[in-house]
Design brief:
alpha/beta; eight-stranded parallel β-sheet; two-stranded antiparallel sheet; 16 helices; 10 strands; binds ligand FNR; FMN_HAD
Length: 386
């Protein structure tokens, strides 16, 4: 396939399934426990129906917008994803490049393969950094300082990983700390020569933000025991206060699923919050993100920006999220699939596909400017109201 033969996110998923080693493809395409929340993130979008309008002049359309005051080519940012450099060699650098060319923000995960410094050295525009709160607070302070030194323009603080949701496939594939790949996984690796060759061509094959930076973590085996015990279950709003102070820049809180927590997020002084269930990878049985959005948007009002992620697979889904009160959105798996399928060209194409779907759908709904989108473009915009 060439990028132009790819017409939707599902095409990328299928291609990634063929090209990416099983254990890393499964890592991306999985949710926790029954994967019920993972699936409902997507399927709940399909419950929302557009109101088609005709004979409205829709010749000049624009979907440019802004997120926390930053101009964006469309109201979509790339979500932070761990191990991205395993979907494709140097994946984080390629993703950041595709995002900056398109004109949308890229978020680098704490658990990325390429380090903050790697990505900064290979890009021109500021990217965002996602922080997990670890028990080792010295390490966190240094990470925050490194993100500042790299000129990152926002800190995305993820709050929904105090404990780790159990993902069956990762356990069965031995994608654990330390990694214990099964024989089948190793055999599968041999069937992906393109991936293997590209991995041989890069030095970036371990957690670049951590190895050589965290105390006592110099190699893969010390890294394993470190990560296993570092996610901090004692995280509280007090920690958010000191992180905000230490960082001093734009702060975005990720993983809010409850209106009361949304109010606490507003009071914490954050610039935006992200309605997110971590792509269905943490609390299985939690509602879909799109169904949780209206209630939270209502609770927050105009005080800070409300964004959402989880289940967005098209520009139509982006438009539905905007209609239900999101000022911006994030995409995780569409990014990973397109990266695993075709590297940087894949991500660029994926962003084009999503923007095109967004543009055309907005037109069908009789609108020319994304700023005028509200729930009146939906026939049943109230189905998730509580
Ligand atoms: C994630 N997500 C995530 N979030 C975060 O804050 N830090 C991280 O390191 C990761 N890692 C990660 C890995 C993989 C493989 C996936 C799929 C997701 C969650 C991510 O930021 C986002 O919330 C979801 O991916 C959004 O859902 P969709 O777009 O994947 O459906």
């Amino acid at each position: 396939s060439t990028p132009s033969q790819i017409t939707c996110v599902e095409d990328f998923r299928r291609l990634a399934e063929r090209r990416v080693p099983r254990m890393f493809y499964d890592y991306a395409d999985s949710g926790s426990w029954t994967e019920g929340t993972y699936r409902s993130n997507e399927s709940d979008f399909h419950k929302l129906k557009f109101r088609q309008r005709v004979a409205v002049d829709i010749e000049k359309r624009t979907y440019r917008s802004s997120m926390i005051g930053i101009d964006v080519a469309m109201p979509v940012a790339i979500a932070p994803t761990g191990l991205t450099g395993m979907q494709h060699a140097d994946g984080e650098i390629l993703g950041a490049r595709a995002a900056e060319k398109f004109g949308i923000p890229f978020t680098l995960s704490t658990m990325s393969i390429c380090s903050i410094e790697d990505v900064a050295a290979h890009t021109h525009k500021p990217f965002w950094f996602q922080l997990y709160v670890m028990r080792d607070r010295d390490f966190i302070e240094r990470l925050i300082d490194r993100a500042k030194a790299a000129n990152c323009s926002a800190l995305v603080l993820t709050l929904d990983l105090q404990v780790l949701g159990q993902r069956h496939k990762d356990i069965k594939n031995g994608l654990s700390t330390p990694p214990r790949p099964t024989l089948a996984n190793l055999v599968n690796l041999v069937t992906k020569p393109r991936w293997c060759m590209s991995m041989l061509g890069t030095k970036r094959r371990t957690f670049g933000n951590i190895v050589g930076h965290a105390k006592g973590v110099g190699d893969l085996s010390s890294l394993s025991s470190w990560t296993a015990e570092q996610f901090d279950p004692a995280l509280s709003w007090k920690d958010i206060e000191w992180i905000k102070k230490r960082w001093g820049g734009k702060l975005i809180l990720k993983g809010i699923m409850d209106a009361e927590d949304a109010r606490l997020a507003v009071e914490s002084g954050a610039d935006a919050l992200i309605v997110s269930n971590h792509g269905g990878r943490q609390l299985d049985g939690a509602p879909s993100s799109i169904s949780a959005l209206p209630n939270i948007a209502h609770a927050v009002g105009k005080e800070i920006e409300v964004w959402m992620d989880g289940g967005i697979r098209s520009g139509q889904d982006v438009l539905k999220a905007i209609a239900l009160g999101a000022k911006g959105t994030m995409i995780g798996r569409p990014f990973l699939y397109s990266l695993g399928a075709m590297g940087e060209a894949g991500v660029s194409r994926c962003l084009q596909v999503i923007a095109n779907e967004l543009d055309i759908t907005m037109g069908f709904c009789g609108h020319t400017d994304i700023h005028n989108i509200d729930r009146s473009i939906l026939l049943n915009g109230d189905i998730f109201d509580r």
